[in-house]
Amino acid sequence: MARSPRSRRATARRLLTVAAVIASLAALTACGDSSPSAAPAAATPAAAAGPVTIEHKYGTTTIPAPPKRVVSVGFTDQDPVLALGVVPVGIRDWYGDQPDATWPWAHDKLGGAKPTVLSAAEIDPEAVAALKPDLIVGLSSGMTAKDYATLSKIAPTLAQPKQYVDYGTPWQEAQLIIGKALFKQDEAQALVDGVEAQFAAAKAAHPEFDGATAVFGALGNGLVYAYTDQDSRGRILKALGTTVPQQLLTLAGDKFYAEVSTERLDLLDTDALVLLSTDASAISKLQSSKVFKGLRVSKEGRDIPMSDLVVGAEAGFASVLSIPAFLDTFVPVLADALDGDPATAVKAPAQS
Which SUPFAM superfamilies match (predicted)? Predict the structure, then answer.
């Protein structure tokens, strides 16, 4: 039986960040039991009196008071929630087999709490309802109208903004929307301003980035999935001053990635190319292929292998918690790739 379009897009989202984990994602199940073990979020004074209302793809959601029991059903929504000092009682897993479905850059924010881990597969309304949430956050969930109708009967629910593709909400927007929902708008804005200042500093320090073409490409299923500026990784490159070639944007259409076959690797012949996979041997195999070795980016040594699981996830989550760590690791490597000297060795980014 053919899969539904929604199912295919959800699979693609999980596949595209780290292609090596594609097969296992569909089988992921909840790592925690069904009883809420995370401490409810402490009540905080509202930034302004009265409820807040937030627009999204399926209408509007009104949140009457600061939430105390937040469930994150988006694949990356736990980060902006945790950044504001709120610990979700439930977190949807994505990939990587991380403790509490929370990655190293954010784990300390749990403060020892043990949120229930929800399956990376389809959203399970019963599991969500069992946590007795007063807010459900799903900006990065890819939820359908049917999902929203079901979840919104359980608690006020945030779906993705209508102006972006599914899974394509910019990190700034996600942080500010969630800040509003948690009645912490000023704190959210301060977090966004701080990370944008880091981008500005990195861009100013590296004028060679300005106008250069650069792409993240994830390996999987015999293809390279090239992220556009509708994806978190493409937006990181754009914020540093680089651009995505127009032909890839055209090929992607209304998706956040373009599918590039090994016969059309010429589409990836950019000034810098990041090859993303947790399987380092898969990257090496592509780099050693005849077609790839004929590309200018290969001949000049400006291809960047990225197989470190955590570093790749820092870019994939692209939150106010993960971006600073990623920039520290990645910017020096990108600078080596774009310094105009083919003799410069470009190393694979790795955790420090």
Answer: Helical backbone' metal receptor (SSF53807)
Q: Is residue 67 a contact partner of residue 182, using CB atoms and an 8 Å limit?
A: yes
Q: 289 burial class (0-12, 13-18, 19+ CB within 10 angstroms)?
A: middle
Residue 280 sits in a domain whose CATH number is 3.40.50.1980
Q: What is the pTM of this model?
A: 0.85
How is residue 244 written in tokens? Answer: 């995505």
Give the pLDDT confidence of 231-262 residue by residue, as tens digits: 999 999 999 999 999 999 999 998 999 999 99
Residues 6+ apart with CB under 8 A from 5: none
Place of tokens 């059309």: 264
d(CA 352, CA 338): 22
Domain that holds residue 284: 206-337
Q: How far apart are the first and last CA of the chain?
A: 46
pLDDT of residue 50: 78
